[in-house]
């Protein structure tokens, strides 16, 4: 049958379904088979031929028909799993039903009245799969669907290669088949790498898409109470009820970690032939993340040694059923498995950073956020893996891509989730001594980043990128400042030698954060100054000898430390600092700030629409249509850039929903407490001013400043600012 006829028949069936007001009997196979038996529709066709409005119309006007459609489609999948899908027609029916359910399920999930539909039992759908009418033995529709998907993901000649020489008498192999022998890819716990098969990959992808759709019901539910609730779809799929749990977990993990997007290294290979593996790898990563989204408060949680312990929040509730995917992940322990996983994730994370002489000649993957979440889960659930990463020099192959993504996403509000996961991973790693030690490795690779040129170590790269995020990111990153500086504090005792560029960046941050208006404008702002002082103290105490650049920068900016030591605490001074700020229109501005240009290479923040956060990869407007809300200029002053009429853009209307406006309303302190807002008092300032850890630095200045001044007088010259530093007039870097 031609594909056009196929589509027409399918569309005709959809129209009949929407126009029939009377229930169609489940036994009317002639009607129901139109949806899957005689058609060969692609997933794109299904989405085009089954419009959202029509699904909702059937749901409202003839709910029994929608229920029967779902029940019959699941029944076909169960039959396909039982028979082993030997004929091409059976395979096509399974794919059609899978696509149809992927299309329809979200419209069932969005309606509260249908909430329990898939968890209700259907007469005739017995747990034994033989169609018993025994109600006690009946399976909920959701369970039947999930078990059918699991079986179909290990179906010989459909999603895995058959090990049989002939197809004669192979019906029994579905039940006796040991799916551990059919794992999709070599890697953890499996040495054999099956021959790549485009058709099998496509079929796996269709089924994983349906599986993700099943798991997505959680997105339509109202936020659960604090006790934490498990996703019943995930809970069942990752339980002992699923006999394929181990091979499927291993297949997904190995498929992700074995993937090499560059292929055979042939330039432009991704343009010459379609890479059918990448969509499968992306789906596999997403399924892993969702199945590993495990709330330790409501079920068993793994401990360091890989065993599991119940940590129910309320003693009255027993620990929830064990999630086998979390269990298996926590029990991986062989060094070669850890190496395979780490190498694979590092290779994929580094892929967008690959520099080639031929533009666009290598394939660039798009699922970095999924990879970072997966890496986080690995470190979180398997402490042995975390320690392996930290003692491996490959940890820098994870660090550099994370810094690249953080720098790249810092001005894009739709990627705030990527910023959070990247920072949290670095925070986790920074808690271990080995990470700080590894940062001393020289940084020689030139990754395309719009950051100042420097010659130094990976520690320099980390601090320079963090400085960039703080000074030219958007306002929604403000809550991450504490985390960023905590990471620097954690690694500071191990940093043997910071470059002059990096030393200046750290002093620049201190200068910006120690202005009186910033310190007095929010109850927590002074924490940032404490973090920076702790960094300086750690380096002076533990790594003084190699850090002459930082010591020199501290001497040059000594006035900042003296100002902190002499911070005014009287009410008039506090009032004056806040008044000075209130006269300016934006939250990060300061009287006397220079009109000079802001930091080099900073990109403007893309404003978010009020109350929304777009997580899709929608193209952001051109640079000329956007305005930077606030930045820190190189002289250490916080300044704002008012939205001005765009010169290069015809559309000069200001972007709506400017984030700085909301931030200003939220953060502006009130000089009177009548409004109930927080207000700085002399007692409050004194409470933390007395704890500022300035002694070490003051002692250092006391000893060294006279010596430096003596050198200057003896030679009658200024200090050698650029002497012995790697000066370059300019260097062109790809942005």
From TrEMBL:
UniProt cross-references to InterPro entries, sorted A to Z: Hid-1/Ecm30
Region (Disordered): 297-316, 572-681
Pfam families recorded: Hid1
GO cellular component: Golgi medial cisterna; Golgi trans cisterna; membrane
Compositional bias (Low complexity): 643-654
Biased composition (Polar residues): 590-600
Name recorded for this polypeptide: Protein HID1 isoform X3
Organism encoding this protein: Sapajus apella
Lineage of origin: Eukaryota, Metazoa, Chordata, Craniata, Vertebrata
Gene encoding the protein: HID1
């Amino acid at each position: 049958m031609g594909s056009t006829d196929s589509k027409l028949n399918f569309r005709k069936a959809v129209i009949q379904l929407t126009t029939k007001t009377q229930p169609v009997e489940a036994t009317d196979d002639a009607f129901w088979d139109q949806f899957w038996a005689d058609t060969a529709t692609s997933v794109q066709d299904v989405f085009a031929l089954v419009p959202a409005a029509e699904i909702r119309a059937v749901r409202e006007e003839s709910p029994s028909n929608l229920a029967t459609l779902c029940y019959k489609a699941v029944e076909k999948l169960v039959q396909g799993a039982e028979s082993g899908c030997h004929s091409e027609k059976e395979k096509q029916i399974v794919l059609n039903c899978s696509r149809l359910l992927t299309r329809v399920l979200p419209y069932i999930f969005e309606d509260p009245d249908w909430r329990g539909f898939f968890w209700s039992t259907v007469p005739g759908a017995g747990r034994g799969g033989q169609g018993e009418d025994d109600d006690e033995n009946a399976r909920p529709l959701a369970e039947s669907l999930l078990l059918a998907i699991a079986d179909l993901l290990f179906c010989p000649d459909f999603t895995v290669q058959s090990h049989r020489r002939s197809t004669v008498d192979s019906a029994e192999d579905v039940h006796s088949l040991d799916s551990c022998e059919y794992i999709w890819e070599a890697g953890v716990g499996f040495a054999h790498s099956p021959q790549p098969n485009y058709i099998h990959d496509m079929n796996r992808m269709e089924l994983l898409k349906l599986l993700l759709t099943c798991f997505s019901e959680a997105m339509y539910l109202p936020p659960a109470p604090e006790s934490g609730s498990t996703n019943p779809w995930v809970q069942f799929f990752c339980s002992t009820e699923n006999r394929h749990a181990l091979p499927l977990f291993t297949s997904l993990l190995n498929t992700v970690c074995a993937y090499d997007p560059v292929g055979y290294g042939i330039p432009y290979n991704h343009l010459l032939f379609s890479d059918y593996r990448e969509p499968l790898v992306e789906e596999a990563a997403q399924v892993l993340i969702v199945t590993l989204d495990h709330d330790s408060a409501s079920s068993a949680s793994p401990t360091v040694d890989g065993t599991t312990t119940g940590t129910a929040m309320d003693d009255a509730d027993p620990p929830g059923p064990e999630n086998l995917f979390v269990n298996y992940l926590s029990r991986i322990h062989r060094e070669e498995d850890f190496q395979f996983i780490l190498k694979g994730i590092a290779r994929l994370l580094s892929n967008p950073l690959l520099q080639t002489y031929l533009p666009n000649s290598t394939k660039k993957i798009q699922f970095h956020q999924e990879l970072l979440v997966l890496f986080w889960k690995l470190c979180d659930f398997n402490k042995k893996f975390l320690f392996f990463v930290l003692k491996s020099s490959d940890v820098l192959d994870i660090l550099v891509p994370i810094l690249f993504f953080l720098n790249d996403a810092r001005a894009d509000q739709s990627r705030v989730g990527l910023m959070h996961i990247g920072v949290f991973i670095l925070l986790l790693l920074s808690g271990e001594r080995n990470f700080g030690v590894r940062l001393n490795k020289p940084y020689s690779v030139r990754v395309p980043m719009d950051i100042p040129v420097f010659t130094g170590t990976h520690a320099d790269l980390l601090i320079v990128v963090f400085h960039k995020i703080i000074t030219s990111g958007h306002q929604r990153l403000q809550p991450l400042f504490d985390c960023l500086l905590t990471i620097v504090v954690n690694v500071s005792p191990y940093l043997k030698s910071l470059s002059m560029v990096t030393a200046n960046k750290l002093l620049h941050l201190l200068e910006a954060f120690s202005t009186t208006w910033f310190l007095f404008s929010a109850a927590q702002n002074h924490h940032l100054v404490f973090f920076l002082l702790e960094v300086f103290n750690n380096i002076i105490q533990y790594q003084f000898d190699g850090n002459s650049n930082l010591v020199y920068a501290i001497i040059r900016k000594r006035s900042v430390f003296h100002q902190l030591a002499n911070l005014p605490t009287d009410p008039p001074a506090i009032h004056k600092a806040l008044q000075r700020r209130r006269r300016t229109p934006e939250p990060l501005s300061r009287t006397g700030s220079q009109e000079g240009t802001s930091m080099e290479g900073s990109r403007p923040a893309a404003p978010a629409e009020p109350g929304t956060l777009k997580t899709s990869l929608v193209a952001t407007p051109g640079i000329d249509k956007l305005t930077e809300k606030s930045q820190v200029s190189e002289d250490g002053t916080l300044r704002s850039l008012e939205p001005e009429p765009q010169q290069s853009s015809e559309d000069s209307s200001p972007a709506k929903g400017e984030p700085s406006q909301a931030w200003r309303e939220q953060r502006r302190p009130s000089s009177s407490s009548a409004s109930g807002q927080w207000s700085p008092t002399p007692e409050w300032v004194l409470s933390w001013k007395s704890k500022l850890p300035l002694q070490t630095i003051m002692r250092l200045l006391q000893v060294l400043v006279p010596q430096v001044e003596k050198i200057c007088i003896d030679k009658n010259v200024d200090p050698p600012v650029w002497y012995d530093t790697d000066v370059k007039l300019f260097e062109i870097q790809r942005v």
